[in-house]
Each structure stands twice: as structure tokens, then as C-alpha cells.
Amino acid sequence: MRAWLVALALIPSPAFAAALEGEAERQPINWVAIAMFVAFVGLTLWITKAAAARTRTASDFYTAGGGITGFQNGLAMAGDYMSAASFLGISAQIFNDGYDGLIYSTGFLVGWPILLFLMAERLRNLGRFTFADVASYRFAQPPVRSFAAVSTLLVVSFYLIAQMVGAGQLIKLLFGLPYALAVVIVGALMMLYVLFGGMRATTWVQIIKAVLLLGGASFMALMVLAQMGFSLETLFARAVEVKTQAALADGATTSEAAERGRSIMAPGNFIKDPVSAISFGLALMLGTAGLPHILMRFFTVPDAKEARKSVLWATGWIGYFYILTFIIGFGAIVLVGTDTGYLDAQGALRGGGNMAAIHLAHAIGGNAFLGFISAVAFATILAVVAGLTLSAASAVSHDLYATVFKHGQASSVDELRVSRLTTLALGALAVLLGLVFEKQNVAFMVSLAFALAASGNFPVLILSLLWSGCTTRGAAWGGTIGLLTAFILTLLSPAVWTTTFGLGPAPFPYSSAAIFSVPAGFIAIWLISRLDASPRAAVDKAGYPAQRVRAETGIGAFAASDH
Amino acid sequence: MPLVQDAAGNEDIVIAAVAADPRYVALVARRARLGWWLSAVIFCAFVGYLLLIAFDKALLGAPIGAGVTSIGIPVGLGLILLAIALTGLYVAHANRHHDAQMAQILRDHGA
């Protein structure tokens, strides 16, 4: 029955099962966790104070003066990307279904190499503060900037709502704090980091969080492996044995039980039809290369070489993290799934489905380590929302205010003031949305964010960087068509139409829009550019050769302005 | 503040000269080819993995030898390692060859 429910929950929205879903049960207040979290907040606020003294110009605010090294930036990117949802959600999915969790992990990783091979160095050579700098490089500024800003705000908003709701549920669960208080704490801390410390503080929050998360997860995986004599085969064999015994206890026959035990070593219901599979893969792969808060991190390093190194470090850390999560998930089957202390009367995890890794932390290191991992999960959310907010604030102040409204004539002081006002407004909005969406299933929003980034930002960036025929109209309108296609098809898909709004069978049967919306974006940009006979189109095309040389060589690239 | 320019501070002249240099044209083509090839490798590997899951779950679930570990485990973990290895390959190649060649071309044009 339970396995069936899990399978049912996965069918409409495979891409988001790893996000934190459903309402969490409130736990008793965990003082160790709160003490560790207070220590983390104290450290990060101290860093923010130091960073605030050095955040005087727009360049400091957006890019930490461009003085972050490739190694630091790689860790910060990993910190920006490894969310609490992926840590708790993927280990929980492995705890329930075994192998399927690995499919997610690979999907979230394979976009990084593509980002490196096609874009990283060119982005750094052409851009200054936001990815719109690159997308609009040789085009008329207002249309392309407006597209990029709207796209950034959409992607960030959906990502942010999912994070805020997940944060509220998670903190209620781990710390025993009320949902509303948890959301307000996350919103307030994130605002402090971004408002006063800008990119410098955000980067360090992300680096510290990445180190804590990687350290904690390494310890857990090591302890799991130590108990298995450092043999993966033993770990898997014992996990299969646990699942087989559980099936026998459920009243299955011996052969059925053996089959159900073995099923955790094979792909399950996660991918049903090839179209959804490819579509989901495209969204994750190309979406990673279009996420504004990730792209923005390329402008914090001094040059293209460091941008390249950033991606290598980020890919290494994120890949390592997913391997750890895999071991942790199987470790939880063996160590948590057999201990009745972690299970309720029905044999389900106490505290909800996402608690597998948290219970495992307790099984391995007692209350102190449980507190540590809980505090790390909280810190993880803070680092992710701070990065998101910073990129949205930059889109408003740099792309809309300074470039579109002030035609590039805004002073650095004014631009900085607008970023901070936007940060305040976004922080308040994030808290409000977190409260409004408390009882909603927001799992589809992360996938929507990836689909939008893959269908709007990615085609615009690739074609503006690599196709001489791309024009202002093509980029602005073609990108908008890609975005709209992804948005509308997602609304019509089962995850939203059926699961979230309960409107019956979905008009669009696949779980992800990307297989249609990414080509729609590319074709629309190509077609509109080809048909564009405006005088501006001639200017756009004439600007390509010089842009290409700058992108390839770094001539004229904005240098680090760290003082 | 431009990072690189000629003695007179004119970037356009340098850019035109670099663009016309056959060594630059060849280097950029080589680098782009490497980027597209590696992208194609990771793209095909991942899409192939998804198609394998969609069409033949049993194959990935089959045990390796007499043990419990299935074929899908090294395949999935291998994909993660492939992503890291390809990024490493690209960065090593760029550090060892591309950077020095590009620096030489830019120096020759007084950039």
C-alpha cells in the first residue's frame, strides 16, 4: 500500500519528487540543533559585517569586486546548487525506491560540463554583472535586457517559492519551530546577508555551507561504509535483505518478497515513457546552463581561466556530493529502516518521508550529530535563497533600472540603492509567498524554473554568443516565445493541471515541457532573426565579428576591481 | 576599463588584426570543436542512459556476476564520474595548450 502511494505520488511529477513535499509533522524543539544553527548564524553575520564595510560600489555588491578565486567560486557554486531538497529528498527517494534516486542525481550534474564547454569562458569575457550583459552585448539594450530581467524574475520566483515552503516545512520538522516563524527567520537572515554583504557575504555563506554539507555528508557515508566493511556489495546486499524482510512482513510470498527486495537495485517507476524521460533530461541539463543565479557567479572571478576552474571544482564537488547521497540513502535503508525507534506504528518514517538522512545522522552520531546535520540543512536553505535573491535584485537594478530606464546613466550609488530596495521588497515577497503557499504542493515549481531557464535563457545565450545572424528582435521575442511555451505547457501538464489544481486529466500528457519548449525557443529566435529586415538587425549582425573575438580572447573584458 | 589594448588604447584595430590571424582562426575552431565534441559525448551518454531506463529497465537491474550489485550501479555512478572527467579533460587541455597559444597571438598583435 505504502509503496503504491509513493509510486502514485511520483507518476505525475517525477522531476520534483526530490523536492520537499507535503506537510511536515512538527517535532519537539531540538536545542542542540538550535545551538549549532545559532553558531552558524553568528559566524555568517560576522562575515556579513566585514563584507558590508567593503561593499561600496555596484561592482562590490554584484560580483564581490570580481576578486573570488576559481576554487572559492567552485565551492560557492556547489553551495548555491546543492539544496536541502536534493540532500533530504534524494536520500529519501533512495530510502523508498533505491536506484531511482541515482537518475535524479545524474540529471542534476550533466548540465555542468555543457555549461563549461559552450559558455563559461565566453560569459566571463563578455559579461560584467548579470547574464543579460552577455545576452544583450551587441543588441539594442532595452528589449533584450527586459526579456532577461523578466526571465530572471520568473525563474528566481518559482525557485524561491519552492525553497521557502521547503524551508518552513523542514525547520518545523527539525527544530520544532512554527512554520510562519521559520519562514520569517529565513527571509530576515537572507535579507541581512544580501542587503549588507552583497555578493561577498553571499559567496562566503555559500562556501561555509558547502564545506559543512560536504563534511557532514562525507562523515555519514564513511560511517555507513565502515559498518559494511567498506564494501558496496555488502551495503546493497543488506539493503535488499531489509526490503525483502519488510515485504515478507507485509504478507508477500517468498518469491514476491525476493523480487521486491531486488527491485531497489533497478530503475523503477521514475521514468515511464521515453518522451517524458528525454524532456526531463533536457530541462535539467540545459536549465542548469540558464539559471541566472548560477550564471551570475561567473562574474565574481577575475578572468576566463578562473571561470573554467570554477566549473571543474563545482562539478567535482556536486558529483562527489551525489555519490555520498547515494551511499547515505542505502545506509538509511539498512540502519534506519530496521530500527523501530525511527518508525511509526505503520512502519513509515517518523516525522515524514524526507527524514531518512536526518534519522541516519542520529543512528550514526547521536543527538549531537543530528543537531549538526539539522543546522547544516537550515544553513543550506539560507545559502540558496540568498543567491537567488541577489540575482533577482541585480536583474532589477542593473538590467531594468540602470540600463533600460536610465539608459546606462545611473550612478553606482543609485544602482546600489535600487538593488538594496529590491532586496528588501524581494525578501518581504518571499516571506509572503512562503506563507501563502504553505499548504500547496509546490514541488512542480523547481522543475518549472529549470524548464523556463532551458527554454528562454539558454537558447538566447547560445545563439547570441555563437550565431552571427541573431538579431535584437530574434533574441527578445524568440526568447519570450520559448519562455511562454515552457510556462503554458507546464501549466497544462499533469503535475499542475491534475495534481495541483485538480482539473482532471491533463491536456499535455508529459511530465516536462522541455522537449517542445527548448526547440520552440531556438526555432523562434532563428525564424524571427531571419525575417528581421529592420535597420537594427543590420547593426546587430555587423557587431558579431568583434563580439566573437572579445568572447574568445578576453580583449576588453571587465577586470577585477577589488580594492 | 579594458584589460587588453594596444599602445594607443585602440581595441578595434587589435580585434581586427587578431580576427584576421590564421593562427587565431585555427585555434578558435579547434577549441570550439573540442567543446562541441565533449558536449555531444555527455549529452549522448545521458540521453542514452535515460532511453535505456525507458526501454530496458531489466538490463540495468541485472546483477553483475553472482552478487547483488546491478549493472545500473556502475553505469549511473560512471555517468557522474564521466561528467567530472570530461570537465577535467577540457580544463587541463585549455590550461596546457589553448591559453599559451592565445596569449602568444595576442602578444604578437601588441594586445
Describe the protein.
- The complex is a heterodimer of chains A (563) and B (111).
- Helices cover 74% and strands 0% of the residues of chain A.
- Chain A is mainly alpha-helical and 563 residues long.
- In chain A, helix 7 crosses helix 23 and helix 10 packs across helix 15.
- The N and C termini of chain A lie far apart (62 Å).
- In chain B, helix 2 packs antiparallel against helix 4.
- The two termini of chain B are 14 Å apart.
- Chain B has 111 residues and is an all-alpha fold.
- At the A-B interface, helix 6, helix 7, helix 11, helix 13 and helix 15 of A face helix 1, helix 2, helix 3 and helix 4 of B.
Summary tags:
heterodimer; A: 563 residues; mainly alpha; 23 helices; 74% helix; globular; disordered N terminus; B: 111 residues; 4 helices; 77% helix
Q: Please give the count of helices of chain A.
A: 23
Order of helices and strands of chain A: HHHHHHHHHHHHHHHHHHHHHHH
Helix content of chain A: over 70%
Query: What overall geometry of chain B do the principal axes of the alpha carbons give?
Result: elongated
Mean pLDDT of chain B: 89
**Stretches of chain B where pLDDT falls below 50 for ≥5 residues?**
1-7
**How many angstroms separate the termini of chain B?**
14 Å
Class per helix and strand makeup of chain B: mainly alpha
Please outline what is shown here.
The complex is a heterodimer of chains A (563) and B (111). With 563 residues, chain A is mainly α.
Indicate the topology.
The complex is a heterodimer of chains A (563) and B (111).
Chain A (H helix, E strand, L loop, with lengths): L1 H9 L20 H23 L4 H6 L6 H12 L2 H14 L2 H10 L1 H16 L4 H5 L5 H35 L3 H49 L4 H18 L4 H9 L11 H15 L3 H4 L8 H32 L20 H50 L6 H25 L7 H23 L5 H20 L2 H7 L13 H18 L3 H8 L1 H10 L10
Chain B lengths: L10 H10 L1 H34 L1 H5 L10 H37 L3
Helix pairs in contact in B: 2-4
